[in-house]
Amino acid sequence: MYKFILVISFILFLMPNVFAVDASFNCPLDENGKIDKSQFLSGAKVCFAPALSFTVTYESLALCTTDPEAELRAGRELDNVCHFLLRTTDTPIVLAMTNTVSSSFAATLPGVGTYTHAMIITKNEYTVQGELEFNGPIVGTNDSRDAVGYGNFCGVPSGDYKISTLYLEELSGSTLLAACYGVSKETPEIGTLTVDSLASNGFDADVTGSGLLLDVSGEVATSEASVKSFFQSYTFPTPFTVSTSTTGLTYGLSNDQAFRLITDGGGGNVIAYLAYLGDLNFKVTAN
Predict the structure, then answer these.
(1) 62 in any annotated domain
(2) What phi and psi values does residue 224 have, to the nearest 5 degrees?
């Protein structure tokens, strides 16, 4: 039996790749099971936790024998090195899950060979619902998204929000993309983040090692408004081999780190900048 882990990772602030298989990125908890604010007081931090629910649309998914991002940048055809399980000409797979359900989908068996990378193209809109409880107050936006919010609980702002909101040089409560409040919400907000850049301080659709934002024609996007999809390459920790005895692939999905919060600490305060759909952990088993 052969196994590999295929993980969807959404990169912001030009941070290094971090994947759900690395438990060191889980939110650090205190002895009472609350997120330990003291661990966020110095510099930028990323916190992973289960989401209450999320929705993401997969447009293309492939197993590749070499890095598909390098192939794409070199202008070579991906069909030469990738086996497509799903492509943009197919019906996209929309996964809408809560933290109490699982999901799977069928896929054709790739040819015999060793696969070193996965290629993933998703729609650039991600809907996520979740709430994190800290053991001390955190600064974010308020419910109305027009001033600062403050409290031990943080989640996503309701409605639609975009990365380009963060382009302002002076960040305020009205531009932060994470909401913080003093009393837990019985039903946390649901927000849909539109990824219109790979950076927080300007438009950048093309970051080597972090993927590419594509327009409707599949070309690298030239503006925020033209972005429709997000292209990513993932290197398997261990290459995945399909042999002549392999009869099928079984896909499963977990969302143990599907909620991500980016913060920055200093001067005794922790500012929550952005809450969004983080890593989705696909487990694929060859039978």
Answers:
(1) yes
(2) -60, -40
One-character DSSP codes across 122-180: EESEEEEE-EEEEEEEEEEE-TTSSSEEEEEEEEPPSEEEEGGGGGSSS--TTT-BSEE
Centroid of chain to Cα 242: 28
197 neighbors 210 (Cβ within 8 angstroms): no
Place of tokens 């109305």: 144
H-assigned helices in the chain: 68-73
Q: How many domains does the chain have?
A: 1
Other CB atoms within a 10 A radius of the CB of residue 274 amount to 23
Q: Domain range holding 216?
A: 2-15+40-286
Cite the DSSP H helix spans in 41-81: 68-73
Per-residue pLDDT reduced to its tens digit, 24-73? 788 999 999 999 999 999 888 988 898 898 888 989 888 899 999 999 98
The pTM of this model reads: 0.82
Instruction: Write out pLDDT tens, residues 228-240.
Output: 999 988 887 778 7
Closest CA to 25 of 33, 16, 34, 13: 16
In a domain, 33, yes or no: no
Cα 260 to the chain's mean position, in Å?
8
- The values of phi and psi at residue 69, to 5°, are -65, -40
Query: What are the backbone dihedrals phi and psi of residue 68, each rounded to the nearest 5 degrees, phi first?
Result: -70, -30
SS3 state of residue 77:
coil
Residue of 167, 186, 163 whose CA lies nearest to 12: 163
Within a domain: residue 30? no
